[in-house]
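My current task is to audit a protein record that another person submitted. Please read both lines and tell me whether the tokens look consistent with the sequence. Do not assume that whoever made the record got everything right. I have pasted the whole thing underneath without changing anything:

===
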Amino acid sequence: MPILSFGSRNIDLITGQKTMTIRKLWKKPLNKGDRLHCYWNLVSKERRKIFEAEVTDVEILNFEDIIKNDDLAQEEGFKDSLELENEFKKMYSDKIKADTAFQVIRFKKLPIEEWEGEKINEKAMITQRADILFDSGKYHKSEMCYTAALKFDPEDIYILNKKGDNLTRLGRFEEALKCYNDALKIEPQNEFIINNKAIALLNSGQTEKALRCNDLAFKINPENNVVLYWRGFILEMLGKNLQALDTYNKVLELDPSNPEVWNARGNLLSDLGKTEKALESYDKALELVLEDEANATAWNRKGNALLELGRLEEALECYTEALNLDSKNDIIWGNRGVVLMELNRFKEASDSFNKALMINPKNDDVKVLLDECLENL
């Protein structure tokens, strides 16, 4: 029973696009017709069976022949034969020479009813892999997996919705809308999917349509926090700021522990010129969030509000906190430089501007500020 282990990066395996692999020649070489049991990460705790396959062809090649063949390298998933050569040398260390024999194994995936060993829920396995890829931001690969999972069940609401979310993040809005519409044919009153459709419409620039779509979700459940949050955001995009503010307030009545909504409320209040109230919102958001890089933005916004109020030392503290969380953000370094200029600390300000320009040499605003700062040194 030959077993093949693949790294989980080989997503093409489950989409059916990868039907070949190159392995060092075994003592007992494979032959056409042999059965393969294929796993992901065989020697790790994340081991997963992915399918069984039948060998359709085996070709024996020396390493020196393989590393001259770009087409073969690309079929194996590498950019070119040079990348394959480098990876294989790492993989096999010093046990690989020009005349080392490899087997190029071609195979066809077998339907589950023909498997000899343990049978798995392929749809569940592929969907789980898609979710992992989606959560880690690998949207091109996760979209491939969701598409593969839908082949098992084209009417799976969860997968249709997740594929729509995935396509929205890839900017493929028409395809995303089709996924949501297909899901809504099956569950027309699903407020979450309707809201996701509204988000796709918003991101594609169809803001009025997004609001009308959100209206439908809102009518189904006017106390759904997710629907309400996006309703506020869409209203804000349409310039209906007071309605948006009322909506954010409604969300916070239902769930006062949501830092994202406190932040959104703070931004809107700041735009409305209500800086003191905005500051209260930012403070509340910062109380609720954990210390991670994403929250550098919250510290930065609080610093901006304090700068606007002329509370310079407090603003400087906020920018310092923000940079402790995200030291490669040229915008925050620039803002820190501004407050240092206001404090007449021009040498420190110029240092901040220079750090901003090291990160982003194209930041023209910082260039202007640095010139002005240097005139005062």
